[in-house]
Amino acid sequence: MHTAFGAVVTISDVMLTFSAVVYLALSAGLAQPATAPDLPAAPGPTLAPTAPGPAPTATRVSEAALRADAMDEWLTRSAAFGGHEWVTRPSRDAVIGFTIPMEIEKIEVVGGQVVKEGQILARGREGEAVASLEVQRVRAANTGPVDNALAALELAQIRLDAAEKAMRQDAFGQSEYEERRVAVVSARAALVNAQAQTQEEIKRIKQLEEQVERYRLRARFDGIVEMIVGDAGTSVDIQQPVVRLVGIDPLWIDVPVPTAETLSANLQLGSPAWVLLDVPEPVRSKAAGQGRVLYVSPVVDASGARRVRVELPNPNLLPAGTRARVRFSPPAAPAASTAANPESSR
Q: Which residues pair with 6 in a beta bridge?
């Protein structure tokens, strides 16, 4: 297009000039985008204000503060008590598995369950073994072979007695008499053999009972089920762990003690030991305060210490792995009352 001054201006030049002007106006705050006043905005749903939740950072700080408080309390209590710090552990700990490759048929317990010695923890597919055992019990209870041998012996003895009577009357031949005498001997041997076979069948029951027991995992001591591996239908190999059973009453503490202290205190089996457990306030009254020495290692380790095993009664089944302080002389009065009867220090 042509302007009044004779210059040639294209449509593209006009559009670029207009865009630049609008951009400068918006940047300077002199222009606002146009709106349609005749078209009101459509109403939308009203959102209720949400309650502010705890900030993640504040939660982490709070948890860290609680842990710090617990640590400070333990440091204060342990410093007043003295002794040596270590951790408790189960006095019995067994990882139980089958002695033959097995498919688990049923798990009889759950984690955390308290069990008694001899209680079944898990069963393998034992149907065939149980059936063989029942058949063997029937065989062992069968008295037929022995009864038959007894009857045969009785018959042979009657015939021999008759032959002896006839011989005294010269009415029986010597060869026929010997034949009946040998028949009695044979019948007696048959009876002994039948009785022996019956005993073998009875003892075979014990053998099959032991085979059936291989399909059953039993608790070897009173304890608590700590872990279960696998479920019904799981195939396990020889000695593959299936159940872990722990005994935590009593607890054991294998604490390293300087050799000089073990000698000066004359530590030996039965020596008293005082224990302070790191447990929260509500359950401190349930923690026993005095135990006894079970074992003192005859070997000094590289640090110059000997391992001393302390046994601590735990009738309330406080968990193993708890931090503990151990000393081999009575603690001072305040610490002693806290260790033996924490309620008295409140």
A: none
Tell me the per-residue pLDDT of 47-70, one tens digit each, with 9 for 90 and over: 445 445 555 555 565 666 556 665
Q: Please answer whether residues 313 and 88 qualify as being in contact, where contact means their C-beta atoms are separated by less than 8 angstroms.
A: no
The single-letter code of the amino acid at 271 is S
Q: Give me the sign of the Cα torsion angle 245, 250, 256, 259.
A: negative
Q: What pLDDT shows up at residue 286? A: 65
Token pair 């135990």: residue: 291
DSSP state of 331: P
Average pLDDT for residues 115-140, to the nearest whole number?
94
Going by C-beta distance under 8 Å and a sequence separation of 6 or more, which residues neighbour residue 279? 286, 287, 318, 322
Q: What is the pLDDT of residue 57?
A: 58
Q: What is the C-alpha R_g of the chain?
A: 45
d(CA 145, CA 312): 60
Let me know how long the chain is: 346
Whether the CB-CB separation of 212 and 99 falls below 8 Å is answered with: no
**CA dist., res. 312 & res. 149, Å (int):** 64
Query: Per residue in 63-96, is it b (16+ CB within 10 Å) or e — as a string?
Result: eeeeeeeeeeebeebbeebebbebebbbbbeeeb
Across 278-334, where does the E strand assignment appear?
290-296, 305-312, 323-327
pLDDT at 67: 62
Residues 122, 106: Cα–Cα separation, whole Å = 6
| Residue 264 dihedral angles phi and psi, to the nearest 5° | -70, -35
DSSP letters, 4-58, are TTS-B--HHHHHHHHHHHHHHHHHTT-------TTSPPPP-PPPPPPPPPPPHHH
